[in-house]
Amino acid sequence: MSKHGELPELAAAVLQPGFVGTSAPDWVRRWLGQGLGGVALFARNVESPAQVSALTAQLRAERPDVIVAIDEEAGDVTRFESRLGSSRPGNLALGSIDDPLLTEAVARDLGCELAAAGITLDYAPDADVNNNPDNPVIGVRAFGAEPGLVARHTAAFVRGLQTYGVAGCAKHFPGHGDTSVDSHHDVPLIDRTAEELAACELVPFRAAIAAGAQVVMTGHLLVPAYDPDLPATLSPRILTGLLREELGFGGLIVTDGIEMQGVRRRFGLAGATVRALAAGVDAICVGGDHADEETAIRLRDAIVAAVLSGELPEARLRDAVARVRALGAWTTRTQREAGVVRGPQPLSGIGFDAARRAVRVTRAEGAPELPVTGVPHVVEFAPPRNIAIGEETPWGIGAPLAELLPGTTSVRLGADDLESLSDPASVVLAGAAGRPLVLVVRDVHRHRWIADTLAGVLAARPDAIVVEMGIPVTVLGGIHVATFGATRACGLAAAELIAGANVPEPVAA
User: Fold this and answer.
1) Cis (ω within 30 of 0) for the bond into 346?
2) Catalytic residue of the set 109, 126, 227, 256
3) CA 135, CA 14: separation in Å to the nearest integer?
4) Structural domains of the chain in order of their starting residue, each with its CATH number
5) Which Pfam families match (predicted)?
């Protein structure tokens, strides 16, 4: 017979809620004493490494094995460095270099920094194969578009990150790359056969599992080859049948944000939570938008009610709790054995070095050489933000270039500034007369208004430098600089190149 009095504690153990504030709220500390298994940190919880260290110490005082998670991809998606931008280049840049030892070293450096701040689970790496360049939410977050490349770098990242007891989390299972829909808003359809999935999407996840990844994150994706009705997060066929039984994954399965519309619209927060656990999920990530005790109570109570009604077998809940506690024990033990020292760590600089290695330059015949002569004018084209990237996270090269070349001017323009104009090029060219012109874009191939404006600008200024900080599908400009990401490290690498440092051998156009 079940000890019903245990059920609230068991239900709390499988939640990874977010919260508001830079110190631990009373309700979170109280819940840790009542079984809460983990918490998820977001940008709103991070001011500095020292502050995060103090926050996690508060949490650990209540439960020493608490799982403290963060969504730190060390690229365009960064929470630990959200206010400055990442000091590392991100996955696509690492994939473009294609040096797995470098990827492992960058991830090891990240793991050391996170562990020192008391973090034990990183919702990274992104193991998606970005084989659809129109993908609105993955893009530069993936290592690339080729399964073998993504697999070797996913494995390298997992190994590096876990050196210091920060659990790696391969996401978004079974693969979010081949879609043009964002699961934050709707349910993407992955319309590929089981054979196609095995040859592409699943390859990096197999590599992550073989590398010892402690965690896999589900994607809110409809994959009819395995389940025509339920998204992966809620599908026993995908989570238990494919991930557990076929791929042999024995670690913890965590959901992508359960409040995302990919699952919430149809089933609601509580319904999606219960269905995910029944399907094989072990931990529920919630709190990006619902970071309050009321939400945690609602989900805990829904889990208890589902066990009492028979909708969620108690044995399945206990199995999930066991995996949560096992991960907590692994992180505690591994960080102790690795000799992790809490508190801020000096920045190693390996991320900036990697970003410099990633830069690729294509120079048209007759175009001027780098570095520029004179003081440049920078125009940054700002497409709609990828929802996974924090609004507060800076990007671009105007600021770092102004530090290197005082007097540099810059302007940032969006679709609202240019799309309705009969001559948008004239707005871009204003202020650039007689000066080097630098045009900064992100995924120009996905935004017609940027492509059309660039055509007019380059007709007047064929010598302009185009810096692509997204996926470099289209090569434009007298000089084309591809950074493979828009992190702080990527921006500095491009700025150094334009100003006269870190000039790689150009590729002929």
Assistant:
1) no
2) 256
3) 31
4) 20-337 (3.20.20.300), 354-508 (3.40.50.1700)
5) Glyco_hydro_3
Question: With contact defined as beta carbons under 8 Å apart, do 23 and 46 qualify?
Answer: no
pLDDT surpassing 60 at residue 184: no
Write out the two tokens for 2: 């079940």
Q: What is the identity of the amino acid at 9?
A: E
In whole angstroms, give the CA distance from residue 475 to residue 468: 9
Mean pLDDT (whole number) for 346-351: 90
SS3 labels along 51-87: HHHHHHHHHHHHCCCCEEEECCCCCCCCCCCCCCCCC
184 is catalytic: yes
Q: Which tens digits make up the pLDDT trace of 190-214?
A: 889 999 999 999 999 999 999 999 9
In the DSSP assignment, the letter for residue 222 is: B
- pLDDT at 2 (0 to 100): 47
Q: Determine the 3-state secondary structure of 171 from DSSP.
A: strand
Count of positions (residues) in the chain: 509
Q: Which residue has the tokens 């994954």?
A: 249
Out of 184, 377, 447, 480, the active site residue is 184
Q: What is the pLDDT of residues 494-508, one digit of tens each?
A: 999 999 975 455 555
Q: Are 128 and 141 in contact (CB under 8 A)?
A: yes
Tell how far CA 22 is from the center of its chain: 21
Beta strands 479-482; 360-363: pairing state: antiparallel
256 has catalytic annotation: yes
Pull the structure tokens for residue 330: 């692994």
* Token pair for 172: 């978004």
**Cβ atoms within 10 Å of 420's Cβ, excluding its own:** 9
